[in-house]
Specification:
Chain B: It comes from Maritimibacter alkaliphilus HTCC2654. The structure holds 2 protein chains of 2 kinds. Chain A is mostly helical. Chain A has 9 helices and no strands. Classes of the chains: A mainly alpha, B alpha/beta. The complex binds fe (ii) ion.
Chain lengths: 132, 283
């Protein structure tokens, strides 16, 4: 079944974690959340493939984990509250993860936030991004 | 009779808890955030609650993807601050008013709000950060100084309950509290927000104009606030700004007319706009 268009599909740079994504990403998210326990972190450190194999993920999802491709993980059904546990496993704090996902350097992102954050102007509709 | 005398809105940014736990609130980055809480702590001492009804969301801590209750009411005797990957926050265990919580659970279900009942639950920063904001520094050996009834709302998987449904739930909570025959002072907290997006290429979105307007209508024209759509929250305030539906639960439990005694707004705390209101209820 193809995914029905959603009224929030035209928001740029955003993956809305709806039921379709939740279904698609279930095992990916359960894998990520397993890393909030030390025994699982140890298992993942000792043998990443063996730990990943405990969860029924697709090859694409496993590859995105190997690549630490943060946006791809979201595209494949990951949710940020879950994928951030993989970030934490790597020692990446939330703000730096946000910088990586938005394609900015750590310092540029931090400065943008201190200066008031990313403006909604020009960032409400995909059509505004296509013009850029 | 139990009375809701105030509603408090407060962001629950984890970094606010970290700043308190690591004693770095005097750093220039944090000073403007915590300045806005000074009044709140004084006010809280003068208007000390017996029970806080605390509306928050769990961030995949107590609930993983396997169970996603839309509304889950904490009925356990106590709630332990959770280990969110860096060890539990060094704050007191949260103690419930268990009989009152059971009464509210029963009243809500009979009032046709089919909530989930939690008899065991750890609580994450969503619940402990607003308590730290209002009650100040506490160690695990201390007491929070209030009993707490937690209500966890799903805002992680779309759709969260609508603003309208949250407001109506607040009204039902009000009826439940009003029918409890014990002379106690109750505060209700709506936590989370304000504008923020933690994910993907649009991460870092902040909409200060929208946030301020939201506070205005939430206080003075709640009938307008309850009509805000999910898509407006997502587009205007970022994918995680949807947490603000929880402020509607708080507002629904108050009178139509309230007195705003305090407002604080600051950008940023980490990735998020910090918003905070104290509303006095007069009935
Ligand atoms: Fe939150």
């Amino acid at each position: 079944m193809t995914r029905k268009p959603k009224e929030y599909d035209d928001i740029p740079g955003t993956f809305v974690f709806d039921a379709d994504r939740s279904r698609q990403g279930y095992w990916l998210n359960q894998f990520c959340i397993s890393l909030s326990k030390e025994e699982n972190r140890q298992a993942f450190r000792d043998d990443p493939e063996a730990h990943m194999a405990k969860f029924k993920m697709t090859e694409d999802q496993k590859q995105a984990i190997r690549d630490r491709d943060w946006n791809r993980l979201l595209e494949l059904g990951g949710n940020i509250y879950y994928t951030s546990k993989l970030g934490a496993f790597d020692g990446i704090v939330f703000q730096d993860l946000a910088a990586m996902m938005s394609g900015m350097s750590r310092d540029d992102y931090r400065k943008m936030m201190v200066d008031g954050g990313r403006s909604p102007d020009g960032n409400r509709y995909k059509s505004e991004w296509e013009k850029k | 009779m139990a009375k809701i005398t105030a509603g408090i809105a407060c962001s629950h940014v984890p970094a606010i808890g970290v700043a308190m736990d690591q004693h770095i609130t005097e750093q220039p980055y944090w000073v403007p955030v915590f300045e806005g809480f000074e009044y709140s702590r004084e006010w809280n001492k003068k208007n000390k609650p017996d029970v806080v009804f605390l509306v928050y969301n769990d961030h995949c801590t107590a609930f993983d993807a396997s169970v996603i209750p839309t509304f889950a009411l904490g009925c356990a005797a106590e709630f332990t601050p959770a280990d969110e990957g860096w060890g539990p926050r060094p704050v007191p265990v949260v103690k419930n008013h268990q009989e009152f919580a059971s009464h509210i659970a029963q009243s809500l279900v009979l009032d046709e709000f089919d909530i989930t009942i939690m008899n065991e639950m750890d609580v994450d920063h969503g619940l402990t950060v607003p308590l730290s904001v209002m009650f100040g520094d506490k160690t695990p050996e201390d007491d929070w100084g209030t009993l707490v009834i937690p209500l966890a709302v799903n805002v992680v998987q779309y759709p969260a309950p609508t603003a309208n449904r949250c407001y109506a739930l607040g009204q039902a909570i009000r009826r439940a509290v009003d029918s409890w025959d014990e002379d106690i002072n109750v505060h209700i907290y709506g936590t989370g927000g304000m504008s923020h997006q933690l994910q993907a290429q649009r991460a870092g979105l902040i909409n200060a104009t929208w946030d301020q307007q939201f506070m205005d209508i939430l206080v003075n024209e709640p009938e307008k606030a309850r009509k805000i759509s999910h898509v407006e929250f997502l587009r205007e305030t970022g994918s995680e700004g949807i947490e603000m539906v929880m402020w509607l639960v708080m507002r629904g439990a108050l009178d139509e007319k309230v007195t705003e005694v305090h407002r604080h707004y600051h950008v940023p705390a980490s990735n998020t706009a910090v918003g905070h209101l104290i509303l006095e209820n007069h009935a």
